[in-house]
Amino acid sequence: MIRAALLALLPLGATAQETGFEPDYALLFEIHADAILQATPGTRRLELPGPMVVEEITRGGVTRYRATDQSGHGAVLCQLDALLWAEFMAHSCPGLFQPAEAERLTGMTFQAAVFAGANTVPPLAPNAAIERLQASARGLASRARPACPDPDTPQAARLVAITGAGAQQRLAASLSLPRLPVSDPCE
Q: What is the mean pLDDT of residues 6-34?
């Protein structure tokens, strides 16, 4: 629910591909070649722990990939996008977050980035994951112009809610299940 509210605030936000954590799907299919299922002509499918379903679809010589997180915890890159946008708003809108809330938000964003880095293909070391996150944050800051909400509005409350105990618990539960970082479903 919080992700949906935050994603509504993401008109110029980061995307999973821009964060640099999107898996190398061709390499993923090479690594798991023995587990590939031929779903239909032109479509190969991998069912991975998480559970995750990744499809390689080739039509007219063009290959694209579709990956779906079926864990019930939500897609990690979707969560990372929402956290990154909230972090951007925290830095762009003084007074929107209390200092303790902003600190928790930074910690949650780093946790999600390190998790995404450790579980992408090929995996990233924690410092490389943080570097990619910081580069993504710089990119977001260079192109987005925030509309800082009044601290007493529902929009501000939705942003700040991402640092609450419930949101922290949901993120911790999500990150306790190793799985490929993908952006679908993004609820």
A: 71
Q: For residue 151, is pLDDT > 70?
A: yes
Same domain, 87 and 120: yes
Cα 7 to the center of its chain, rounded Å? 11
Q: 148-184 b/e with 16+ CB inside 10 Å = b?
A: ebeeeeebbebbbbbbeeebbebbeebbebebbbbbb
Query: What is the count of structural domains for the chain?
Result: 2
**Cα atoms in the 13 Å half-sphere on the side-chain side of 186:** 19
Same domain, residue pair 170 and 90: yes
User: Is 183 among the domain residues?
Assistant: no
Query: Could you tell me the pTM of the whole model?
Result: 0.86
